[in-house]
């Protein structure tokens, strides 16, 4: 009986070892496929030989991966490249004509929908303003309708996934919007579940600042990948995405980076989050316009009129309007306080600032923020920190929504194809 027990244990052990090795092999194959897809994204056009050289994988492995990708239409052969020693090689690229991603960006005043390629390129973007009289359910129905309309117009392609960027805080693991300041009724909305049930394709939802950070990393990877970076959005709200050595830091509940809800004045105005004197109460576009409207109501001289829009304010700043410039500079100084705090807390090498407030007069913002930050941090830290403005062609938050979904496709591409 004892001998049989030993043999049984050995057999069970061998079976477990084989199963473990099989799982490990499949995981390694997935990692190799992801690596190749990311290289094709970055290089745009690449030969099999160059892929083998860049990845360190055997040429036979690259050949098998590319053959699988071609079979599933993920990549196509395109053109002839000059290889080593003058040898001509067939170029490989991602099949942007076949597969697409739907990206959606929800803000406090509008939402945008874009159709994108797997490499993050934007083929079309449409913007729709929110109706303040609508509740969250009605707005979601509008988003579904406009999304379905775009999907119908691009039915000649296969949309593999949907990526959605939302103002935070958003709890990713539960798919729940916790609360969105200045947007009533969105608490507890289950965005991912709702959209997946509607369209029957994978849906990925992420905080807007995190999406913006993802976009910066994808399109400036050579510069940023090995560094710690903070991407700050200064728009209708204020937040930041934190990336360290190529990885997004989300925190315990996925809520890291909510700098807009850090207090810079404990006796300041009450915020919807329950805190007082939150940063975004001083340097969001909503806060700036509230101050502008008060000054107009008090009869101060300005080219701006009562009820003016943020676009009007932007034009006034660029025309040199005294009141508009004062409010813009003040908002930039308040934002700089938030930048000082984040630098002292996280010690990033790069701080990149984007979104609506930054787009008003980006170089003026950079000068004001730089000067203020330099005054308030130690010289040794200042010398090792670079503050930059966003310079991506399209909105990083919308691009980032698509990037979040595309990266999921890259992690396991064959899982997304319906047989």
Structure class: alpha/beta
Instruction: Give the C-alpha Rg.
Output: 25 Å
Number of helices: 15
Largest sheet: 5 strands, mixed
Shape: globular
Helix-strand pattern: HEHHEEEEEHEEEHEHHEEEHHHHEHHHEH
Assign a percent range to the helix content: 40-55%
Unreliable spans are none
Number of E strands: 15
Content of β-strand:
15-25%
Distance between the termini: 50 Å
Strand order of the largest sheet: 6-5-4-7-10
Mean pLDDT: 88
Question: What keywords describe this structure?
Answer:
single chain; 419 residues; alpha/beta; five-stranded mixed beta sheet; 20% strand; globular
Short description:
The protein is of the alpha/beta class and 419 residues long.
Q: What would you note in describing this structure?
A:
Helices cover 47% and strands 20% of the residues. It is α/β, with parallel strands linked by helices and 419 residues long. Helix 2 crosses helix 3.
Outline the secondary-structure elements:
Layout (H helix, E strand, L loop, with lengths): L1 H42 L2 E2 H8 L3 H13 L3 E8 L5 E7 L4 E8 L3 E8 L4 E8 L6 H18 L4 E9 L3 E2 L4 E2 L13 H9 L3 E5 H12 L1 H4 L3 E7 L3 E7 L2 E3 L30 H4 L1 H13 L12 H9 L3 H25 L3 E5 L1 H5 L1 H15 L2 H4 L3 E4 L6 H16 L8
Parallel strand pairs: 4-7, 7-10, 11-14, 14-15
Antiparallel strand pairs: 1-3, 2-3, 4-5, 5-6, 8-9, 11-12, 12-13
Helix pairs in contact: 2-3, 6-15, 9-11, 10-11, 11-13
């Amino acid at each position: 009986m004892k001998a049989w027990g030993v043999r049984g244990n050995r057999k069970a052990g061998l079976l477990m070892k084989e199963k473990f090795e099989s799982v490990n092999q499949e995981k390694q194959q997935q990692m190799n496929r992801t690596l190749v897809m990311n290289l094709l994204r970055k290089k745009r056009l690449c030969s099999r030989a160059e892929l083998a050289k860049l990845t360190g994988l055997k040429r036979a492995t690259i050949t098998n991966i590319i053959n699988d990708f071609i079979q599933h239409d993920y990549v196509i052969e395109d053109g002839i490249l000059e290889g080593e020693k003058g040898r001509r090689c067939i170029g490989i690229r991602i099949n942007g004509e076949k597969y697409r991603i739907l990206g959606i960006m929800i803000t406090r005043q509008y939402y945008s929908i874009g159709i994108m390629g797997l490499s993050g390129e934007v083929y079309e973007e449409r913007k729709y303003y929110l109706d303040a009289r609508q509740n969250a359910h009605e707005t979601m129905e509008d988003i579904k309708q406009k999304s379905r309309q775009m999907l119908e117009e691009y039915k000649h392609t296969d949309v593999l996934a949907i990526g959605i960027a939302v103002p935070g805080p958003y709890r990713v693991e539960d798919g729940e919007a916790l609360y969105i300041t200045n947007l009533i009724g969105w608490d507890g909305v289950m965005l991912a579940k709702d959209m997946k049930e509607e369209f029957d394709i994978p849906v990925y939802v992420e905080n807007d600042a995190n999406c913006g950070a993802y976009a910066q990393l994808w399109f400036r990877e050579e510069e940023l990948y090995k560094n710690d970076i903070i991407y700050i959005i200064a728009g209708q709200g204020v937040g930041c995405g934190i990336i360290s050595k190529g990885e997004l830091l989300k925190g315990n509940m996925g809520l890291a980076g909510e700098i807009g809800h850090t207090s810079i004045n404990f006796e300041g105005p009450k915020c919807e989050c329950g805190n007082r004197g939150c940063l975004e109460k001083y340097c969001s576009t909503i806060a700036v316009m509230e101050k502008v409207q008060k000054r107009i109501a008090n009869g101060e001289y300005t080219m701006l009129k009562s009820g003016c829009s943020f676009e009007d304010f932007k034009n006034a700043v660029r025309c040199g309007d005294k009141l508009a410039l004062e409010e813009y500079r003040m908002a930039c100084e308040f934002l700089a306080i938030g930048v000082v705090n984040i630098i002292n807390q996280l010690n990033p090498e790069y701080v990149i600032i984007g979104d609506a407030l930054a787009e008003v007069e980006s170089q003026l913002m950079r000068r004001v923020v730089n000067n203020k930050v330099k005054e308030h941090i130690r010289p040794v830290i200042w010398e090792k920190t670079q503050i930059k403005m966003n310079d991506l062609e399209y909105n990083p938050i919308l691009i980032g929504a698509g990037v979040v979904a595309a990266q999921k496709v890259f992690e396991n591409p064959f899982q997304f194809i319906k047989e």
